[in-house]
Amino acid sequence: MKTLIQGGMIFQNSEFQTRDILLDDGIIAQIGPHIDPTQADQIIAVSGQTVLPGLVDVHVHFRDPGQTDKETVKTGSEASAHGGYTTVCAMPNVTPVPNTPDKLRQMINYNDEQGVISVKQFAPVTYDEHGDQLVDFDGMKKAGAVAFSNDGVGIQTAKTMYDAMTSIAKTGLPLAAHVEDHALMNGGVMNEGSASNKLGLKGAPEVAETSQLARDLELARVTGVHYHVCHVSTARSVELIRRAKADGVNVTAEVTPHHLLLDDSMIQADDPMYKMNPPLRTRKDREALLAGLLDGTIDMIATDHAPHTSADKGHSFNDAAFGITGIETAFPLLYTQLVKTKKVTLSQLLKWMSSAPTAKFNLSNENEIKIGNHANFSIWDLNAPHQIATKDMKSKGHNSPFLGDQVDAQNLMTFANGKLIYQDQ
């Protein structure tokens, strides 16, 4: 089956080029300005639309198994395709935790069966993501783990983290850390500061993040592990990572769209849609996060897609669940608020959302639009103003503070592993 994608604008080498793409059984066979249409069995005309490489997210929560009322691998991967993603890495905080090589292998097979895109799988660091019993790191690598993480729970004991880093360094895989000292959180539900005082809510101080980060960076320096910092949220964290990189520490870092675009001053009422962990920090922190992306301190953007039911979010800020969705809204929001406003270029955004996570996590480069690769790309209308609305979402979770926001980018279709798996209706 030969399919001709005709007249799209491919963004390559920092510029738009009008090109046709010929797929032969899902593999890119030709790329050129005028491919003979008579050799195609099917023609998809996309004149004036933009063809972007498949996006990559190294931090998602698909809740499956254990909390399938919130999300499943199937719905989460369908939501990812809607957002233009063709590869994601799922965190292991599911029930049961895939804490042995056999369980992880079963999880990976399940992801392959249920996912409409490539769903890679994290293995946990400790046996049940709590305590100090370490998993079989070498066995987990052989079973297919993409990396290791106890995301959602900071590893509280320095000795446990040191031992984990020492062993994981031998595997060559990344250790992705949620940095949070529980003893310093003070039961906080949002950032500690003037906004929390105004709303009368308990605040979580930034030192709960930065103190554990400082510890881990020193341990990473000693052990040589590839240490990846999840969802960086403070200016001080950016500075600590910057210094560690200058000191030769093998550290990478991610930031979420919500920490780039929102801050605690925007929380004007008891609205649990703004409740996530780490919390939204100050405007100064938000600006430092963007500066960290621009100077290379932060390597990539990851969504921390965390769907919840309306019941879980239908409480006060104090009692509602932490977390928001993000996989469907990330690119439209960032394109509209950062690229269109000329704060960053489209080339930079695609690096942070595709090529950088691919390179840093040693993933397949199949998301690159080049001859010989499977089709892993999406086609966008970058001039299609519309509001973010639940009716358009494929995820089971609709817990987003961005509902109602105006965005300019709309995904028309996504190809993954050579197949058309999302098309706008």
UniProtKB/TrEMBL annotation:
The active site is at 304. GO terms for biological process: 'de novo' UMP biosynthetic process; purine nucleobase catabolic process. Zn(2+) 1 binds at residues 59, 61, 151, 304. Binds 2 Zn(2+) ions per subunit. The keyword Protease does not apply. Pathway: Pyrimidine metabolism; UMP biosynthesis via de novo pathway; (S)-dihydroorotate from bicarbonate: step 3/3. GO terms for molecular function: allantoinase activity; dihydroorotase activity; zinc ion binding. Zn(2+) 2 binds at residues 151, 178, 231. Residues 48-235 form the Dihydroorotase catalytic domain. This is Dihydroorotase.
